[in-house]
Amino acid sequence: MININEITKMIKNQNHLGGICMILSVLFFSFMDCLIKITATDFAVGQVMFSRALFGLIPIFFLIPKKRLKNFYKTKNISLHFHRSFWGAIAMYSIFVGIRNLGLAEVTSIAFSGPIWVVIFSILFLGEKIRAKRWIAVGLGFIGVIIISKPGFDNLNFYYIYPIIFTLGFASVSIFIRKLTLVNEPIYLIAFYFSICSGAMGLLTLPFGGWIMPTLYELGLLILIGLFGSIANLLLTQSYKLAEVSLTTPLKYLSLVLAIIFGFYFFGEMPSVYTLTGAGLIVVSSAIIFVREHQLKKPLTLPRQQ
To answer: Which domain holds residue 215?
Structure first.
């Protein structure tokens, strides 16, 4: 006989575990961002990107089933993997440049506008029909991005372009991940090809200079960047598998709080009124999109995958 109390308890435990996974994911992404900023004066972006991809492969291999170890890389959807990986690598490069040259709170705030672009790309490439509520959300998000980046453009600080490029790449990645999941491609394979592609793109920057031989301490930092980024992505995915997305997704906004705290404590960054106002609009915008897509039972956009 089915015990309703036991089932209810199990669901609650899964929700709690999913919430913990999301909080840990936020922490690991925040730690990675800090390390990227710390290594900014010593390493070329391409070298950091290569390290993120190379050492990020380590946690991925633990997900591959033993019976697939010999041929896990085989796929019939190589074109979809290429497009997901290519745009993901562009997004990774862009947000790394943004983190190194802008405040953590600014980059994190603009990065949250990714779901806005996913809505627009869904219209253009998936033929989805969007109603008034989500159009309002898109409008609010755009206003938020403009408020955050306008002072920078006025002062000719064009590094604000990079987190915006990240959101465009992020939207493309989300579309292709949706297509890959529809053909039942495993998460580890999607992550594997992304790491290979982003690592290759990072390696292509070697002839342009800026790469240096790291000390043992610096090598440790580069290894941690790869491990933290990969673990953060895996925890993010696991949180959505364990718990209701309506409970776990709002926890992702802790990353903005951590970006403000870490930016101030480690780098002396004080977010401006423009950043806080724009961030508020973007958070409201993405929250509206999230609630609407949850109501429609649509695939939800995972916040930040890289």
So the answer is: 28-295
The answer to whether residue 301 is domain-embedded is: no
Per-residue pLDDT, averaged over 248-275, amounts to 84
Read off the pLDDT band of 299 (50, 70, 90). Answer: low
Closest CA to 34 of 89, 87, 97, 99: 99
Residues 6+ apart with CB under 8 A from 50: 199, 202, 203
* pLDDT tens-digit readout, 44-85: 999 999 999 999 999 988 888 888 888 888 888 899 889 989
**Is 274 a domain residue?**
yes
pLDDT digits (tens, 9 = 90+) for 3-50: 545 544 544 567 778 788 888 988 999 999 999 999 988 899 999 999
Residue count of the chain: 306
What's the CA gap between 113 and 110, in Å, rounded? 5
Tokens of 151: 């002072």
With respect to residue 53, please indicate whether it lies within any of the assigned structural domains: yes
Look at the chain and report how many structural domains it folds into.
Answer: 1
Predicted local confidence at residue 157, as pLDDT: 73
Residue 227 lies in a domain: yes
